Amino acid sequence: MLPGIDGFYYLATVYTAHPEGLDQAHKDACAAAGQLMAAGVPIYCPIAHSHCVAMWGDLDPIDHELWMNADRPMMEAAGGLIVVKMPNWEISQGIAEERRHFTAAEKPIVFMDWEASTRTVRAESPEPLCGEKP
Fold first, then answer.
1. Rounded to two decimals, what is the model's pTM?
2. In a domain, 130, yes or no
3. Could you give the C-alpha distances from 61 to 19, 75, 94, in angstroms and in order?
4. Which parts of 57-92 fold into alpha helices (H)?
C-alpha cells in the first residue's frame, strides 16, 4: 500500500545503467508506469515521458545535467517517489540523485519490485516505441 500523498508520484527507473540499453530501459519504464496507472496510481515517469523527446528532439539522452534540470520541477511538484528495483537500480546515478532530492524534501520514498518476466514489452519487439525517424 502506498502512503497517501497530494498529487502524483514521481517514478524512478533505470536508464543509462540498464543492462539491455536505452530503448529497453524506455520500454521497461513504460511497462512499470502502465502497471501503476492501471492500479490507479497517478505518476510522472521521466524515462517514459522523455526518451522519445530525446530521440526526436535530437537531444543527448544521456546528458545527466540536461535531464535533471528538466526533471527537477517535476520532483518538486511530486508528492512522493517510487523507485523501481530493476537490475542496476542501486548503481543508477539518476535514481541516487532523485532519492537524495526526495529525502531532503522529506517526501515518502517507496520501492516497487520488478521482475523481467512481468514486462509487457520485450526487447525483441519489432518496432521501437518512438517509431523510426525519417
1. 0.86
2. no
3. 16, 19, 12
4. 64-77
